[in-house]
Amino acid sequence: MKVFDYMFYRIAKRYYKTDGSFAMRGIGIVSLAQVFVLIDTGIIALFPFISFSEFKSLAVFQSIPISNVSVGVVIVLMILNYLRYRGKYSDFEERWNNEEKSKQRVKGWIVFFGSVLPVVLFFFLPKILGLLF
Q1: 16-52 b/e (C-beta count within 10 Å ≥ 16 → b)
Q2: What ranges in 47-100 are assigned the alpha helix state H?
Q3: What CA–CA distance (Å, rounded) separates 23 from 39?
Q4: C-alpha distances in angstroms, 6 versus 32, 87, 91, 99, 123?
Q5: pLDDT digits (tens, 9 = 90+) for 38-94
Q6: Which helix (H) or strand (E) segment is 37 a member of?
Q7: Taking the CA of residue 9 as centre, how many other CA atoms within 13 Å lie in the half-sphere pointing to its CB?
Q8: Cα dist. 19→13, 81, 118 in Å?
Q9: Whose CA is closest to 124, among 115, 133, 111?
Q10: Positive or negative, the Cα torsion across 99, 102, 15, 83?
């Protein structure tokens, strides 16, 4: 199972009445989750190689450059996800609509944590790794 595909399907299904098969909320939430996963992965990958002072001086903590880069990455991911998921809702519905309720519940928790955990880690990972304060 591709986690982001299933995440898109479940979010699109949740908001189908307002968004229709266009599912822009699903695309947006999946894109944001992917951005936070990329940032968290970068922090974890850099952790063994940098000290506290080097981490603090990275562009991540200088608001203007990182905000421009972040917005650009989000826009690029939204475009790529739009191209990927355009017209795919019915395919995903055909694939996952007849899931057992217990399986659907477990995968629903995976979707929830998959969209919330990267954001939480973004804010707490530097603290957990001892890179701040």
Answers
A1: beebeeebebbbbbbbbbbbbbebbeebeeeeeeeee
A2: 52-57, 63-85, 89-96
A3: 25
A4: 15, 15, 11, 12, 25
A5: 888 877 787 777 665 666 565 455 555 566 777 888 899 999 999 999 989 999 999
A6: helix 24-46
A7: 21
A8: 9, 16, 25
A9: 133
A10: negative
How many whole angstroms separate alpha carbon 31 and alpha carbon 37?
10
The pair of three-digit structure tokens given for residue 88, joined into one six-digit string = 């795919």
- Give the per-residue pLDDT at 65: 58
Residue 89 dihedral angles phi and psi, to the nearest 5°: -55, -45
Give the type of residue at 36. F
Q: Is the pTM of this model over 0.85?
A: no
Candidates 113, 84, 105; CA nearest to 23 is: 84
Q: Give the DSSP letter of residue 133.
A: -
Question: Quick one: 128 exposed, middle or buried, by C-beta within 10 A (0-12, 13-18, 19+)?
Answer: exposed
Task: Report the distance separating Cα 47 and Cα 30, nearest Å.
Answer: 26
